[in-house]
Each structure stands twice: as structure tokens, then as C-alpha cells.
């Protein structure tokens, strides 16, 4: 199939819910991908944060190949060797008290499980979430997501959700009632624009939850698995939630959602109250075991610290040089660059110049590269961006 045919088929047959970029990716390795014509790109999208260990990491490929030959499918009502190996590895990397796990298939599903668990454990219906939050698009997760554009067409949503301004413990306190089951937050808001918590907000949430007997759920779907320089971002603030959601990257590129909870909380589920057909699928479990080994053995969180610092500094140089850059922020290899105008044009020009970048809202460029990205890739990204920002500045001055 040539590119024209591929595009025509996707346009014709696929649900029209993704804003497509004009490039057909057919191959990837590490932090690089190639299009159908063989053109190389530095991938700062990491497939929306999925490729922590890089595209087609050889150890993940090897694990998938071996498991595919052995057993692809095994429902969780049967025991399985590779699934039990993964459960052990997951509990080893999780914050200490989070020693029970539900395995799902996506980020939204890991949040759905957290919401149901909070309601079941506490017997209360209300969840307090943050304005600007993103937790996914299934009905429960969507009810916790903030963006009106995603919510409005699908009302009525699940009742019992309230949104409060982030970084404001007073408002959180005001929103709490005797029916509050949990507070749900991202340690760093990703889709919301790479926004770090201010003024000990996370510690404050933990204290409020302890004081009022409310559960704290942290959604680490985007921040987890080494992305920010710690295995989980909550470790930067020394806060352990009662329930933690992880997905995107944890199976080295295959779909896996993980909900961690304290044992007494997870034990509130009775047989059959929560499940999914693919829970603990052996092929996905084998990939996740390999991905965890890679993250640990290759010390990828430390790499995220080092290269994240370098990347951020290089972007700050661009901020100092180009007036159209408003801010550079982030932690590890989760970085945002806020501009004074819409970034779509910059994203498209970057593609033409061999760099793939994400947005996060209208004016923010978002960088979620694989943690195996190399310095020379970062330099390439910065050189491309520098030229594009220069051009944009000139065009804006002229108009
Ligand atoms: C913080 C957060 N939670 C949940 C989700 C939803 O994950 P998924 O798209 O796998 O359902 C995302 C996706 O971007 C996310 O960033």
C-alpha cells in the first residue's frame, strides 16, 4: 500500500476522533521513528508518553516473541506464570504500601477501577477532582476530566464528581462533605499544560485525606514509570496515595493499565465486581516484565533527570532568545514550552523538519520523548525549533 492509499483508508474507515498529523509512521527504534518514505524523525511525542523504553526495545521485542510462541491468551480466572512474575515486579516498583494490583488495558480503565474502588471501600459516592485535570474519556474517567469540550456532548455524566481549583487547599476543604469518598489528582497535570503542583499541594491533599478519612487517588498514567526522574512522580513530594493509576508506558508499548491499591482497599472488591477479559494477558505481561527490567537495569529515571535537565536548559536558551516563548517548565523528561500564540503551525513545521512534538492545550508544546533519547537528538530538536521560532517571530512582526 502506498501512503495515499493508507491515508484514504484511515480517513474513510476509522472513527473521525483523532486530529491527524500529515505523516505515515512505519518504523521505530529508540527515540527515532521513520515514515513510509524512509524519512527520520526524533520522536518527542513517544506515542503520547507510551514509549518510555523507546520504540521496539530489543528486550521487549524478544520477550514478546518468546511469549507469543508460548501462550498469548490466558484469562485471569486461570493462574499464569508470567502474570505472577509481573505482579511481583509491579509491587516491587510501587510505593511500599500499595501492594495489591488490578490489571486493565488503558489509562481510563485504571481510573475507572480507582473510582469504583473508592466508592466500594468507603460506601460514599463523591469524588473531588481538579479543574484542568485529564483522566481519560470513558464515562467515569470523563466525569473526572475537566475539559468541557470532552464532557458536554455526553451529559449526563456519572453523578458525584466535583472540580476544584488545583493548588488551593481551602477550596478542596470547602468541597468535602460527609459523602466524599476520594480526592483524585495528577501529580503534574499533563494534558492540562505540564503544570507542577504549587506550595506543597500534594502533601496538603495527603494531610486532608488523613484527617478526614478520605482516600487519595493519584493518576500517574502520564507521570509514572520514570518519566519525571522518579519511578512515580509522587515520590518527589514524598506523598503516597491510597490508590495509584498507571498505564501508557508500563508494557513497553503494548496496552496495559494498572491500578495499585493498599491491600485493605483492594480487598473491598468482591468476586466478579470488577473485571475485564484481557486482565493480565500473558503477552502484555511478558512485555511489561521486560519493560520494568529495562527501566530498572538501564536506570532510566536517573537518565530522565540528567537529560531532562539538559533538554530544559536548551529550551530555556530558546526562551531567552525568542520573545514569543512565555515559559518553559517540567520535571525530568516531561517538559512544556508555553508560547504566546497557537502552536499548531509550529507542530506542522516541526514534522517537515524531522521532529515530532505534542501539544497540551492551544499554546503549549509538550515533550514526552522516550527516556532513551540521546543528547544529539535533543540538540537536533532544539536546532529545528530555534529556526521555526525565528521564522514565526519574523512572520508575526511582518503581519
Ligand atoms: C493523566 C492521564 N490519565 C488518564 C489518561 C487516559 O489514558 P488512556 O488514553 O490510555 O485511556 C491519560 C491519557 O493521556 C492521562 O494523561
Verbal overview:
A hairpin with a 4-residue loop joins strand 2 and strand 3. The longest helix is centred in the C-terminal third of the chain and has 24 residues, at 375-398. The relative contact order is 0.16. The protein starts with a helix and ends with a helix. It has a 7-stranded mixed beta sheet with strand order 4-10-9-8-7-5-6, with helices on both faces. Strands 1-2-3-13 form a 4-stranded mixed beta sheet. The model has no long low-confidence stretch (mean pLDDT 97). It is of the alpha/beta class and 399 residues long. The chain contains 14 helices and 15 strands. Pyridoxal-5'-phosphate (PLP) binds at residues 48, 106-108, 111, 134-136, 186, 190-191, 219, 221-222, 247.
Short description:
This protein has 399 residues and is α/β, with parallel strands linked by helices. Helix content is 40%, strand content 17%. A seven-stranded mixed β-sheet has the order 4-10-9-8-7-5-6, with helices on both faces.
Structural class: alpha/beta
Number of helices: 14
Seen as an oligomer or otherwise, the chain set is single chain
The main pleated sheet reads as: 7 strands, mixed
The global form is globular
Distance between the termini: 42 Å
- Portion in helices: 40-55%
